[in-house]
Every structure is written in structure tokens, then in C-alpha cells.
Amino acid sequence: MFGIADYGAFVIAIIVFLLVPGPGNLALITSTGKGGIRGGLAATWGVILGDQVLIWMAVAGVAALLAAYPAAFHAVQWLGAAYLAWLGLRMWFARAGGQPVLHIRTGQYVRQSFLITLLNPKAIVFYMAFFPLFVDPARHQGLVTFAVMAVTVAALTFFYGLTMTLMTHFLAARMRANPIVSRVLNKLAGLFLVGFGVKLAVGN
């Protein structure tokens, strides 16, 4: 199908990749908790946009460039780590009833999740290594093949984000009734964001 060796396996692999806990998932859950369904869907679009940029950077060979210039790779890596840690610390020290770290305006949710997704250089390397596994050299159609793969990732991410948003919104409505639970969850989300930032900075 469009030069993809096993489209069904490709879809399953992307779904598994989406289910792996990470900063993108955390941003989606937190955005839904703060901004409801609208916030969750906005964050989903931010993740999709970030993924699409990374996918086409990988296709263009940016991963090879980063591999050739380790200093550039580490600079982007530390930038992403610092951004996640900054968000996490703001959430950890946020006062009860204060202005939320992830703002209510839709554009803010899109930008936050977009940057969280984009500032992870390892995702570029992942796509660079992952896509060739499903490309059929005999039927490869150039950019058409990669476009179909990119659109598939976007569609699956949207449906996953929609599902997560609805589930999180359903649970958040009940947690808001208990301010202690809400405060603890906010601090845990901040702690996890800092943890992801540290992991990104020191991981190989």
C-alpha cells in the first residue's frame, strides 16, 4: 500500500508508541484537567504539529545531521530538558487557586504541547530509524510513501488524543470536587515533567 511494506503492522506499532508514557501524554492529560475537552483537543493538535515537523525533519535527514554534529544534538537535547523542567517546577510551586501553568487559552495549550513534542531530538532519530522498517524498496513511491505514513501518524494521534481527552475529562470532573486531590495531582504532574526533563538530559 503506497510502498509501505506492512501497513497493518505500521499502524499497530504507532499505536503502541502512542501508549508509551511520555511528556506528550502528560501535557495532554494536564491540559484536559485544566481546560476541559477544548484544552485537551488543543494539546492534541500541538502534539500532532510537533510530530509532523519531526517526521519531515527526519525524512530530510536532520537525524543524520545531528549524528554528524553531536554538539548540535546535545544543544537541542538540553533545550528540551530545560523547557520540561521549567514547566514542571512551575507546576510544583504553583499556589492553590492561582493561575494555572498550562493556560486556559486554546493557543497556549497548542503551543505548550507543540514545544514539548518538538524539543525532543530523540524523536527525530526514532522516526529516522523507524520509517525505513516499513518501506518496501521495490514499491517505494518517494514522498508519497512518507506522506501516507505521516498522515497515518497524525490520524492515529488525533483519535488517541480524543480518547484520552474524553477519559481524562470524565475523571477530572470528579477530582475537582476535592481540592486536595487536585493539588496533589498537579504536583505529581510537575514532578513527572521535571523527571522527563532530567531523563532527556542525561539519557543516551
Characterization of this structure:
The chain has 204 residues and is an all-alpha fold. The chain has a domain at 7-69 and 101-175. Helices cover 78% and strands 0% of the residues. The protein has eight helices and no strands. The model has no long low-confidence stretch (mean pLDDT 75).
Structural class: mainly alpha
Order of helices and strands: HHHHHHHH
Shape category: globular
Report the β-strand fraction as a percent range.
under 5%
The tally of strands reads: 0
Quaternary status: single chain
Q: What's the main sheet like?
A: none
Give the termini distance in whole angstroms.
35 Å
Unreliable stretches, pLDDT < 50, 5 or more residues? none
Whole-number mean pLDDT: 75
Evaluate the radius of gyration: 18 Å
Total number of helical segments?
A: 8
Helical fraction:
over 70%
Characteristic terms for this protein:
204 residues, mainly alpha
Q: What's the layout of helices and strands?
A:
Blueprint: H1 7-19, H2 23-59, H3 62-68, H4 70-92, H5 106-118, H6 121-130, H7 143-175, H8 179-202
Helix pairs in contact: 1-7, 2-5, 2-6, 2-7, 4-8
